[in-house]
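Lab notebook: predicted structure, single chain.

Context: the supervisor wants predicted structures on file for every construct in the current expression panel, including those that have not yet been purified. This is the next one on the list. No modifications to the sequence; it matches the entry in the shared construct table.
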Amino acid sequence: SIFQKLMQIEVPPRAEYIRVILTELTRLNSHLVWIGTHAIDLGAMSMLLYAFREREKITQMYEFVSGVRMMASYFRVGGLAQDVPVGFDKRVRDILDTFPAKIDEYEG
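Prediction complete. Output recorded below exactly as produced.
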């Protein structure tokens, strides 16, 4: 962040990687809300349910990591509030491994 640069605080590489992973999952989460609600406008209720099913997996992972479903205060100046728990990498991989197969349901 700009504050970290101004204060010359260096974030450890591990924390940077975790931040990027969580930020990208947040972006995916946002896109799932968009595509689900957009589908409602087109009359596709099932699409909303599919999108929110996948979104739920991401929010459960946030809760696993930070204790809250939207991780509003997990990132801190200089790193993270705490390290990720054991099993974080497996949960992220599970999301990433199963998500692409679900896209076919969205197109159907």
